[in-house]
Specification:
Distance between the termini: 23 Å
Radius of gyration: 21 Å
Bound molecules: adenosine-5'-diphosphate, magnesium ion
Helix content: 25-40%
Largest sheet: 7 strands, mixed
Shape: globular
Number of strands: 13
Amino acid sequence: MIEDKNQQRTPLSDLGEFALIDHLTKHFEVTQKTTIKSIGDDAAVLDFKKNQVVISTDLLIENVHFDLSYMPLKHLGYKAIVVNLSDVYAMNAIATQVTVSIAVSNRFPLEALEDLYAGIETAAKVYDIDVVGGDTTSSTTGLLISVTAIGEVEPKDVVYRNGAKPNDLLVVTGDLGAAYMGLQVLEREKEVYKVNPNSQPDLESYTYIIERQLKPEARKDVVKLLSELKVKPSAMIDISDGLSSEIMHLCKQSKVGCDLYESKIPLDQEVISTCEEFNIDSTTVALNGGEDYELLFTISQEDYPNLKGNPNFTVIGYIKEASEGMHLVTRAETKIPIKAQGWKNFNG
Ligand code: ADP
Ligand code: MG
């Protein structure tokens, strides 16, 4: 984080917990009709009438899930919300509320938390959700953020990971691998900066991949689009850990196998060129990179005409019987078993 010397740094101790909460949350407006009581009482009150309620939580820890040396706090606030909403959309539900809990050390001045909350507020506006509560506490070291996202779905529309059937098509939204390559570029620039703090990074040719890393979007639009196209996926999952591990989750829970075609995996040109520059295989990046926040789903073949030609969707494979296993069909038409690597938080 490049710190502005003129920036004000108000110690959190100047405010106290309650004033801090008030200060950070005063701009939040209630827009959802399902929000009966928002911030300010012992608990929020929501009313979903006949709809089912979807709840998902994520915990983000400094230097495990984010690095403040290249992640501006405003982006972090935005991303913390978006990654949670992505889980709600993966249930084919619409997100309506979030709660945000933070633990901060006194290393962070008030202005830093204002930036974090500016990002949270922007995400709340963009995705049309209410921030209805949270908790605020101190931490002895870094920053910790936990977001709980709440959504609603008509019981007939909910989509689980476990409904894929043999012969279904495997479909993915958007393109893959960009967030991971964005991270590679940012890590490289961080090393350069350590050696020469005066160097001016030229990141123009990496705009898309860096944006995918620092400011990802969740596919709320896809949930709406599927409903307009009258397509209900048989199974769905969001791609947070990389395509291969998500395919494995979906297939295992559905008790099916699959053939995934390497040549069909959607990649942005910037991902392809950056992979060449870093000498990394772009398929490996798409399979194991993670943080794409796209949706992976299966549909019955009858639904294919409704999705055909839509630029949001790419058919990347077929669901098979479980006994046939899960395979990547390479460009050379050899079949190799899909292995999950996923995100390596546990291995350092
Ligand atoms: P309690 O003592 O019951 O935990 P708090 O004083 O922590 O209550 O919180 C008061 C209100 O402010 C509650 O509605 C709570 O959900 C909300 N709140 C606390 N911290 C945050 C935060 N970081 N972001 C959003 N809302 C918060
Ligand atoms: Mg509290």
